[in-house]
Structure formats: structure tokens, C-alpha cells
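Input record (one chain):
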Amino acid sequence: MILKAFKELKSFLDKPRNIVVIGHRNPDGDAMGSTLALKQYLDKKGHTATVVVPNEYPDFLHWLPGSKTTYRFDWQNKQSQRAINSSDIIFLLDFNALHRVGHDMQNTLEKYPNDFAMIDHHQQPDDVKYMYSDVTICSTCQMVYQFIEMNNDLDLIDADIATCLYTGIMTDTGSFRFRSTTSTTHRIIADLIDKGAQNDQIHNNVYDANSYNRLLLLGQALSNLQILPTYKTAYITITTEEKKRFDFQKGDTEGIVNYALSLKGIIFAAIFIEDAEQGIIKISFRSKGKFSVNQFSRNHFNGGGHDNAAGGKSDLSMTETVTKFVTLLPTYKEELEKSYEN
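The corresponding structure, as predicted from the sequence alone:
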């Protein structure tokens, strides 16, 4: 754990400040839950806080308390720039490096004259003045809860804040099934339920709000599934044409990679998705046991994340990207075979 200048940050926040809270590009449940929860907590402390996200987030997260006050940097650029330029400090949540917000927003943040405070659980974070980093914690939402706890302010967590935090923890732990889910996580979840988080409603809002086209896209993705039993690996591809055919919306591919990982005997899973807007192949990696997809992605696909969940990208074509991926597997055959060994 890295807890850098926490006392100084606490002192800095002793008087009302204008604060911007930022999540990463293509925000997921943990990014949205943590930013919205922290914003509402800071408001309760007498600050004026604004959430700015780089771009659109999935429709199944638009119900989160406070989401209607969020600015999108790509769409509401003037409002976002105004909030950033008038802020006394910026909180960076659920990402470890400025490039994770996208090129345009990164340029703005690199010119920012004041300090950053980072709360994040990804490996190898950028160096900023104030930092709370812990790669062993399952989600940034859990870290925000513990940040509030460090300030002796758990009594300020109301039903809305609890709902945001519960959502982020639930989504980043795969509904509490990943190895990073600890007994501490469950105790925090219990407290959030006691404080008003409606666990059944949250689950329904996130997981039971599929559109017809999203299910058809899932069916297409599963029909594209390829299994490489020699390397205990499975992968899925989704092309731009397939996305168009099923009226792709932001978030429609969320979680599909986990279907590949759910196969018996599979240790390593990947999904390759064409992104025409950025001109890249977006990649998500998942693994079981000790095989580090964070290191694999950093080594080969300009990405990173956690040991069992990471992202990456490729500037090659889909065919070339998949060929590169498959060609790399023999190098990792022994690691994959021993992933569950002590």
C-alpha cells in the first residue's frame, strides 16, 4: 500500500475547495461508482465537487445517484474545461496514469497547475502529490469507503453513496467471486447494505437490463469463441461489422470475456474488439490462478491492470492481432500449466 501525504491532504481539505473528480476513459462500474460516491461525500464535507469523465459510460450505469450532474469531456468540453480550470485540486480515481483518460483530456490535465490526488488499485501508478494506492484491494470503490473511514466520516455515507460504492465493488469483483474479494470486502458490503444500498435492485439495474440486440451480440461473440486447449486459453473476436449489425451501444461487450474464462480447463481468456473510432483493436484479458495478465499485457499489448484482469490495445488488424496473440502462447505454456501450483 502507498499512502502518500495523507495528513497533508486532510489538512488541505479542512476548508471548502472546488474539486474535480475524474475517472478513466470508457468508465465502468467501479469508475462511475467511486467518482460519484466521492463527489457526494466531498459535497457533504462542504466542498463543491464535480465529476468529469472522458467519454460516455454504459446505459446500465446511468441510473446511479448523481450521474445526471456528471460532465462528459468529449461532449461537454466547455463545461468540463471550466470545472477543471476553476478547481483547487483534482482527484484521479480508478486509473494509474494520465494517458488512461484519452489523448485530448490528457493534454488538458498535463497543463493543470494545481495538484492531483490519486485513489487507485492498479499497478505502477504515476507519481502525484497525494496518493492512496493499494493493488491488493478489489476495487476503487472499496478504497473510497476506506478513505472515508480514514477520515472518521463513515456516518456521512447515506443510501446514495452506499449505492454507488456497492455497485463498483460488485462489478469489479464479478459479483464478489474474484480472488481479490476478502472478508474485509464482505464486511464493507454488509455496512453499505445497512446504510441503504439495495443489493437486489442494484444487481437488477446492472445485470438484468439487457437490450435484445445486446443479447444477439453476445450470441455472435460466443459463436466466434475459439479454444486452444494446449495452452488452456480461449479467445473471442468481435468485428466492427458485427457491432453495427447488432446496433452496438456503449457497454454491450462488458463482461463477455468472462464467458471464455468460464470454460472448464481454461486459465487464460481474451476478447479482441475492433474500435473503428480509435483505429485500434481493444483487448481485455482475464486469468485464473497465478498467471499475470497484467504483465502479459504490459509486455505485448501496451496495457496493464491487475494480475487476473487487464486491458490492452493493438494497432494491427484483427487477423494480425490474433495471430500475434496465438504466436506468443508457446512462450507462456509452462506458466499457464502451473498457474494453480504453489
